[in-house]
Amino acid sequence: MIDQWIIGIILLAALLLFILDYWRYDLVAMMALLIGAISGVVPEDKIFSGFGNAAVITVAAVLVISHTLWSAGVVDALANLLGRVGNNALLQLVALSSVTTLCSAFMNNVGAMAIMIPIALKLCRSSGNPVSKLLMPMAFGSLLGGCITLIGTPPNIIIADFRRNLGGEPFQLFDFTPVGLGVALAGLIFIWLLGHLLVPSRTGSDKGDNLYDIAEYLTEVYVPEQAGGINKTFYELEQLVGGKIQILALVRDEQRLPAPAPYQRLRAEDILVLKADAETLKTFLDASGLELNADEQLAERFLTSKDITVMEGVIGHDSRLIGRSAADLKLRRGYGVNLLAVAREGYKLPPNLANIRFKPGDVLLLQGDKDTLAGIFERFGCYPLAERPLRIGKHTRVIRPLALFGLAILASALGLVSPPVAFTACAGAMVLTGLIRLRELYSSIDWPIIVLLGATLPLGGALESTGAAASLAQLILTSGAALAPFWLLGIILFATMLLSNVINNAAAAVLMAPIAISTAQGLGAATDPFLMAVAIGASLPFLTPIGHQSNLLVMGPGGYAFKDYWKLGLPLSVLVGCTAVILILLVWPL
């Protein structure tokens, strides 16, 4: 009994830390695993068994395959067709959400969204339709698509492995399709007919051509012969007003240098481009002796040119920027890039960015060399909001990865090999044939998810081996003694759905699966419908932006507040949850 209390306390503490999001979820999971090992509730020979689990390997392989398909331009080819849908808002909604759902059934949800968001922004800019009407439905569509196949989302792979551990065959590739496809269609139809009315009408961070109104903070100043600031470094100049001014560019001897180094010294007849509000600018001019050099075309001339451009990007959930400030980044010194503006939940933050700590979902506006900016976003874990050039110049670039992926699906569907073997072999073949470089192989894997799964799977096993899962199941059975079994199935599904809105959906599946199995065994019912309920519930976190990265990615570009998600997410959750229970009972009888 004491072991049940120990594992319960460990998991409750981990759950609280997941919700608070103070530390990354993979770190929390590892700490919980180590505490479980030290306390003895996780057996010594099981401590790191999760990292060799078939589910973990399969998730890693699917991530590699998704990245290869993404980089080959498979999704780009579909997205390119969407440019022909015209300006009708409903038609745009149907087309974008449908394609996103389809792509998410076979590849990583976030990868599909990273391609589709710029397409949506482009369509909204050309048509004038509010971008907020498209992005949240697209994000929810990506979650619905994950329910359709085994490889659509990690919870499905995890649940298949739980079924294998029960002594049966794991769920196969299309075992999820009868329920998942029905749920996805019900959700999409609701979004098309009624859901878009529940989404706020906002333009988000999409400001058209005014670039966050950055021009109102740009000023060009001239350095006269007797200016007091001559020979000072640019860092010293910025400190004249406590760092509240930013030197964005230097024009010297008819050469323009964007993002000049802080240690560079000011010379007579230099021209500087500054970013500051009016009050700070006046203080700076008085202290430095520099003069205004007004130019009405300054913003247009400075922000973009043949080699220089501006680009927006969303900070991802695992970005290296989270918790850091603009002053920490040293973008100008290290990368020759200027941070011009930051938008949060669709609202531009004040121009003095030095001490602002970045959060997931913030939208950054960067200026610099065109070839450099894409690499900067990738380096820092951000998703560019600019449409990529199509990567489908050669048909073989698309056909080869699609052919390998199709062979893996066929081999798995026909039962020739198990899904873990089929998709791991597919990922390996993509490496051997040069479709993905070895360096990209490792960078394409979402390692925090892998660590999370490897750490939580032994904890889920401890939940079962200590009898804690059985005790929780007995509590559910006792509380619902007067209820029919299908009501308990619904309780499991909606409890998992609620949990997945506040913690990672893979962790929600790992924690709820043992409880679902014990509940089914207590009822004397089949375990398959209860496992399927956990898979569906874990895959559909519609209520919060933190429930899934797809939700978080659209928060800034769509201008959504935290409360906007449940307005559409709550009725959608009820609809798809009830639909899922009915379909599960039809396909997987109790």
UniProtKB/TrEMBL annotation:
Subcellular location: Membrane
Pfam families in alphabetical order: CitMHS, TrkA_C
Protein's UniProt keywords contain Cell membrane: no
Transmembrane residue ranges: 5-21, 27-43, 50-70, 90-117, 138-159, 179-199, 398-415, 421-438, 445-463, 475-499, 506-524, 530-547, 568-588
Superkingdom, natural source: Bacteria
Topology versus the membrane: Multi-pass membrane protein
The keyword Phosphoprotein is assigned to this record: no
Keyword terms: Membrane, Repeat, Transmembrane, Transmembrane helix, Transport
Domain RCK C-terminal: 206-290, 297-383
PROSITE patterns per UniProt: NA_SULFATE, RCK_C
The protein's name in its UniProt record: SLC13 family permease
Highest classification ranks of the organism: Bacteria, Pseudomonadati, Pseudomonadota, Gammaproteobacteria, Aeromonadales
